[in-house]
């Protein structure tokens, strides 16, 4: 959980979304925890219609890829105008307000990235479609590329739902029990331990006796042991990181350094 002191200001956390389909939002973000937080002004959502920056009589936003191939690519001029509009009123610097392009080729999203984003003033998300975005505008505006998994979606809007929900739940006062954000999957590179509730016995299957002991130290030890067991069997990659003592993944800011290195090599 990110505290108010860590966040460093009293303004609600804000997200600006550049999309061809602004009508998709807030969508599922208007429900449950994120929806209540939105209506309580704990966070704000702005959509920017990419079509408004389209060119020509038909407000075209894309063109054929240079070099041939299927699909269409967002024009750099169109995306640049949308990014400029989204930047109005934002604090200077990527630390306070990162700009993110949601793409399958991006850096895999991890909980440490979510925690870092929850400490910012807000973020701008560019939702891709078709074959993607002209590489030149991505480099010029130093967009951080993020992927929510090794699969392809119809557009970045669906990835945006995932990313926003993950960040919003870490905003102060969104969760009723702040420890819930700490004691859950991926908070320490471990998957979550098994959970149980009443009745004590269901269809002949009892709740583990340790959880009924009232001994908090034993319960904590059991939960950690189970989290380690599940992580070791289901996610060897996380288990290796946990075993090596690497509790914190690379910061999203490392991506900016990658862009610099890549530009230098050219």
Secondary-structure class: alpha/beta
Count of alpha/pi helices: 9
According to DSSP, the number of beta strands is 9
* Helical residue percent band: 25-40%
Rg from alpha-carbon coordinates: 21 Å
Biggest sheet layout: 5 strands, parallel
Keywords summarizing the entry:
266 residues, alpha/beta, 5-stranded parallel β-sheet, 9 strands, 34% helix, 16% strand, elongated
What does this structure look like?
With 266 residues, the chain is an alpha/beta fold. Helices cover 34% and strands 16% of the residues. It has helices spanning 4-7, 32-39, 76-87, 111-118, 135-140, 156-168, 216-234, 236-243, 254-265; strands at 13-19, 43-49, 62-63, 73-74, 99-108, 122-127, 144-147, 201-202, 205-206. Strands 2-1-6-5-7 form a 5-stranded parallel sheet, with helices on both faces. A two-stranded antiparallel sheet has the order 3-4. Helix 4 (111-118) crosses helix 6 and helix 7 (216-234) crosses helix 8 (236-243). Mean pLDDT is 89; it is low at 247-251.
List the helices and strands and how they pair.
Blueprint: H1 4-7, E1 13-19, H2 32-39, E2 43-49, E3 62-63, E4 73-74, H3 76-87, E5 99-108, H4 111-118, E6 122-127, H5 135-140, E7 144-147, H6 156-168, E8 201-202, E9 205-206, H7 216-234, H8 236-243, H9 254-265
Parallel strand pairs: 1-2, 1-6, 5-6, 5-7
Antiparallel strand pairs: 3-4, 8-9
Helix pairs in contact: 4-6, 7-8
């Amino acid at each position: 959980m990110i505290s108010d002191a860590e966040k460093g200001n009293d303004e609600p956390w804000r997200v600006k979304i550049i999309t061809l389909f602004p009508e998709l939002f807030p969508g599922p973000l208007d429900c449950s925890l994120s929806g209540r937080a939105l209506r309580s002004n704990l966070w704000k959502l702005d959509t920017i219609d990419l079509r408004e920056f389209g060119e020509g009589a038909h407000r075209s936003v894309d063109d054929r890829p240079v070099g041939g191939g299927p699909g269409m690519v967002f024009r750099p001029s169109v995306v640049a105008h949308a990014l400029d509009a989204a930047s109005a009123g934002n604090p200077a610097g990527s630390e306070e307000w990162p700009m993110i392009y949601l793409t399958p080729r991006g850096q895999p999203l991890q909980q440490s990235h979510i925690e870092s984003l929850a400490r910012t003033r807000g973020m701008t998300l560019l939702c891709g479609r078709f074959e993607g975005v002209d590489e030149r505008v991505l480099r010029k505006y130093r967009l951080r590329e993020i992927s929510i998994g090794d699969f392809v979606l119809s557009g970045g809007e669906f990835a945006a739902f995932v990313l926003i929900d993950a960040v919003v739940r870490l905003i102060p006062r969104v969760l009723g029990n702040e420890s819930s954000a700490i004691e859950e999957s991926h908070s320490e590179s471990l998957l979550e331990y098994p959970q149980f509730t009443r009745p004590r016995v269901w269809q002949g299957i009892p709740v583990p006796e340790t959880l009924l002991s009232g001994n908090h130290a034993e319960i904590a030890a059991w939960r950690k042991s189970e989290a380690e067991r599940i992580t070791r069997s289901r996610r060897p990659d996380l288990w290796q990181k946990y075993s090596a003592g690497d509790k914190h993944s690379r910061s999203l800011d490392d991506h900016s350094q990658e862009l610099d290195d890549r530009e230098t090599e050219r």
